[in-house]
Amino acid sequence: MLLSAGDRGKRFMTPHATAMLHQPKIPSTGERQATELQIKWKEVKAQKQAMVDILTMTTGNPAEKIEKVRVPSCGNSE
């Protein structure tokens, strides 16, 4: 998020740096009731939409392009 807020043409990272964007975490279903999961899911969707809105504003890319970007998550065996 911070890198996207820099002025266009002045967004730099050192050659060996890595920029990471993490998805919100959702606890496993065995630990929560169904209503709690619904509430958490709504929160996660709102967080994701806020992140897309910020990146749309700071990068100038359309929301559709930003939403298409897949962020790999650690620990998944995909």
Blueprint of the fold:
Layout: H1 34-59, H2 63-68
Architecture overview:
This protein has 78 residues and is mainly alpha-helical. The chain has a domain at 31-57. It is built from two helices and no strands. It has helices at residues 34-59, 63-68. It is elongated, with a radius of gyration of 16 Å.
Q: How many strand units?
A: 0
What is the structural class? mainly alpha
Annotation field: number of helices:
2
Rg of Cα set: 16 Å
The general outline is elongated
β content, as a range?
A: under 5%
Q: Compute the separation of the termini in Å.
A: 26 Å
Portion of residues in helices? Answer: 40-55%
Which terms would index this structure?
mainly alpha
Quick rundown:
The chain has helices at 34-59, 63-68. It has a domain at 31-57. 41% of the residues lie in helices and 0% in strands.
